Amino acid sequence: MAARAVSVLITGANRGLGLEMVKQMVEASRPVGKLFACCREPDGPRAEALQTLAKKHPDVIVVVRLDATDLCSIQLCAKQVGSVVGTGGLNLLINNAGMLVKGTLQETTTEDMQNTFNTNVVGPMNIIKEFLPHLRAAAKASGMPGMSSSKAAVVSMASFLGSMANVKESYVILPVVSYRVSKAGLHMLTLCAAEELKTDEILFSLIYPGWVRTEMGGDEGEIDAPDSVKGMLSVMASLTEKQNGAFLSYQGSTLPW
Ligand code: NDP
């Protein structure tokens, strides 16, 4: 990451890619200053690995409750983060929390579509809105020109399955309609945010982590979480205003919409 200690927030940080990001960020040669590791149930069994990690790095990791589908929890989390970061603001926000329901168009129910959309699109939208004051504060406090992830940035976990360009080839293999539609929505949300907030010098990018062996990716995935996260953190560290509104792979290449 950057030369000076930055503050980072990651949603869905209790398992999968989110937990691996927390691990690699605190173990990096230049660790982050404050890392807000958010999850739905900080005191529940699914957050045990995160809590163990947080105990090892009590000065850096702050475990905070955040449910992407619950606006009150997002607002409360933003308040808690604000009380820690103050006028220094939040440098990097990673919209990682996500869900996937399997199903073809004919199998997908209204409930599947609404739940997936709420988690993967409405959640990130509300998170961006509620954390904007802290991102703006970070942009102002940095004193650096241009855009970067050590100044003020939002990185969201994109998907190849949300890309319109690949539907013909990939649909038969993975007909996850609600997930595809929601990720396409997240991609558009990111482009809108990049356009609307460029004068604030807040960078918005999408990174596709690859097909990763996590609970969501399954055993047949192509790579393990440590390799995906290593690549993504390197891409995040290299982001500049040229990548505002970009759709990148964990290896740094530009992907088709
Ligand atoms: P996992 O299913 O392993 O983990 C998902 C994480 O999101 C969990 O921490 C989960 O928390 C959290 N989460 C789900 N719903 C909510 C919610 N409403 N509020 C807060 N947290 C929530 O997935 P991955 O780690 O594989 O994926 C992480 C991100 O990367 C997702 O956005 C996914 O779409 C994206 N991605 C993953 C790919 C892959 O191959 N794995 C490929 C492309 C994109 P809890 O334990 O409480 O359920």
Task: Summarize the structure in words.
This protein is an alpha/beta fold. It has a single domain (6-249), classed as Rossmann fold. It is built from seven helices and seven strands. It has helices spanning 16-27, 48-56, 71-85, 110-142, 167-170, 177-196, 225-238; strands at residues 7-10, 34-39, 61-65, 92-95, 153-157, 203-208, 247-249. Strands 3-2-1-4-5-6-7 form a seven-stranded parallel beta sheet, sandwiched between helices. Helix 1 links the parallel strand 1 and strand 2 (34-39). The two termini are 27 Å apart. The model has no long low-confidence stretch (mean pLDDT 97). Bound molecules: NADPH dihydro-nicotinamide-adenine-dinucleotide phosphate. The site of NADPH dihydro-nicotinamide-adenine-dinucleotide phosphate has 30 residues, from helix 1. NADPH dihydro-nicotinamide-adenine-dinucleotide phosphate binds at residues 11-12, 14-18, 39-40, 46, 66-69, 96-99, 119, 157, 159, 208-209, 211-212, 214-217, 221.
